[in-house]
Amino acid sequence: MKKMVLLYYCMFFCVSLFAQTNFRDITLTQALEQAKKEDKMVFVDCYTSWCAPCKYMADKMFPQEKLGKYMNERFVCMKINVERGEGVDIAAKYGVSAYPTFLILKTDGALIYKIVGGTETADEFIAKVEEGFGEKSAYKMEERYLKGDREETYLFDYVNSLLASGVDDKAREVAGEILAPLSVKKKCSEVYWPIYDNHRLSPIGSENLKFFLENADRFRKMVGSEKVDAKLLFLCDNRLEEMLRGRMPATDADLDAAEKELKKYNLKAAYLCDYIEMMRAINKGDTDKIYSLYPKVYENMSEGKLSYLYFRPILLFSGKGKWTDEQKNGFIKLTKQLAKRMNSQQMQNSLQYFAEAIPKF
User: Where does the secretion signal sit in this chain (predicted)?
Assistant: First the structure.
């Protein structure tokens, strides 16, 4: 009788095990080799230990029989913590920066499709995976490209499908093929503006962006000042925000260059001048000036930007006896006022906790 119970238990365990998504404890190289043997693709679950949606997918979605059957029939599946060991290299190689991210790879390691974020149901996740193999998917459209088709409308569609699949490197390569045979004048026309306007196709430091900046006035005439100025403003805004966050050098020479850029492109953006003024004050250690600029810079700033721009200038001089009691009280008042208009509970809490900590600064 005991043997029968044990046998039944083992059978039940095995059925349960294979009903769920089978994540194998192997390296990416081993997964690619195994997929080749089994005539499958590779599915990589990129997670972190602190990511709540990652845990939800692991605990609630992937154990489901329907999803497990779908995944196991098509993929060799593996999980990787992107903050440890091989995971760090995988995240860098495939541009993983949000979690969870799921990669679908060919057996040579080429990226077919990238899914960012989890789902509430197994059906939703299956639908997301299926999107990567539909008629308009990069996976399906690649065949024409490999056969040598370079018809422009098709190439634009292929670029968009590559972007939708998260295959940015290939999308930039194909966009480059679209632009390569064109004259300078034609490149600046509205037809090709989507390439220059897309930060994934024309990232900071790229030849595309360099061309755009060198020909901004020509783009204004052919595409329109409103669109071009919005792009220029976005670039200046992004650069100055990175400086204010301490992620880019912000010496006086850097700030002089940023001011010249605003004047060169005739951009009217008072708030960017306020950023520059704030950073000059930080460089000088002029806490009185920083304090006077705080309401001007932050009072009407969006919630998203406040989350990464608000705290640093105050913290730079905390614990050094730089802030007077009057200034601390002013910061507390402003911080509490901002907390009241936040939509996010997390941001409300962050500002409230920060206000409570200011007296110690």
Answer: 1-19
51 is catalytic: yes
**Residue 15 confidence (pLDDT) above 90:** no
pTM of the model: 0.77
Contact in structure between 246 and 313 (CB atoms under 8 Å): no
- What is the dotted CATH code of the domain comprising 18-133? 3.40.30.10
Of residues 10, 14, 46, 54, which has the active-site annotation? 54
Catalytic residue among 10, 14, 51, 236: 51
Q: Given pLDDT bands bounded at 50, 70 and 90, which one contains residue 136?
A: confident
* 77 noted as active-site residue: no
Phi, psi of 128 (to 5 degrees): -65, -40
Classify burial at 327, counting beta carbons within 10 Å of its beta carbon; exposed 0-12, middle 13-18, buried 19 or more: buried
State the DSSP code for 23: B
Closest CA to 165 of 130, 125, 192, 207: 130
Q: What is the pLDDT of residues 22-53, one digit of tens each?
A: 999 999 999 999 999 999 999 999 999 999 99
Phi and psi (nearest 5°) for 4?
-65, -45
The average pLDDT across 250-269 equals: 94
| Direct distance between the N- and C-terminal alpha carbons of the chain, in angstroms, rounded to an integer | 72
Please report, for the chain, the start and end positions of each structural domain, with discontinuous segments joined by +.
Answer: 18-133, 285-361
